[in-house]
Specification:
Elements (H helix, E strand, L loop, with lengths): L12 E3 L2 E6 L2 E6 L5 E7 L2 E2 L13 E6 L10 H4 L4 E4 L4 E4 L8 E10 L4 E10 L4 E3 L5 E3 L3 E6 L5 E6 L3 E6 L12
Length: 184
């Protein structure tokens, strides 16, 4: 039986104003000035996420509270694109949003990487300062429990996941108008 590799935590750095976790040919860039957003997930130098040129307000990977009916559109500035407080730890990056006054919530994002496993960990928490209410489309006010969702926008790339002799999966993501095509 093969034992898992010993953990090899990646030390975070700041490079070009972004918080970075990088090892081998993998690089994760997080921008605290823009909502603690993951602006790049690079593999072999290629960004697998959309960039601001595709849509200046909706790119990369971010995190929102749900249901969206509690806040509508556009996304909440404090959570989506406002500045986050960032803290570098020996093996992680922690970012915190300001409290959104309408919902009474703040978001904490923690990013870490393990080079031995080739893994990036995203931990998120929504902290509420009070129970809040919102109006439904019918105009009724009601309390609800919060949840979250991660919104990641992949760049137009081809991804092939292969496990020898067991399974094969391939998807091609294209923008605009995402569609999936079978592997070649």
């Amino acid at each position: 039986m093969q034992h898992p590799p010993s953990p090899r935590p990646v030390k975070p750095i700041i490079d070009g104003g972004r918080h970075v976790l990088a090892w081998d040919d993998v690089r994760v860039e997080i921008d605290a000035a823009i909502g603690g957003r993951v602006t790049a997930l690079r593999f072999g130098g290629r960004n697998l996420l959309t960039e601001p040129a595709a849509d200046a307000g909706n790119y990369g990977s971010t995190f929102w509270p749900s249901p969206q009916t509690a806040w509508g559109w556009p996304p909440l500035a404090e959570i989506d694109h406002g500045p986050y407080r960032a803290e570098l730890e020996p093996a992680a990056i922690t970012m915190r949003s300001a409290i959104n006054p309408a919902l009474g919530v703040e978001v904490e994002k923690r990013f870490a990487a393990d080079a031995a496993r080739g893994a990036v960990t995203f931990d998120f928490a929504i902290t509420t300062s009070r129970r809040y209410r919102f109006s439904s489309p019918a105009g009724r006010s009601r309390a609800y429990r919060r949840a979250d969702f991660r919104c990641s926008r992949p760049a137009p790339v081809t991804i092939h996941l292969v496990r020898p002799r067991t399974w094969r999966c391939a998807r091609r993501w294209e923008s605009p108008g995402t569609r999936t095509t079978p592997p070649p």
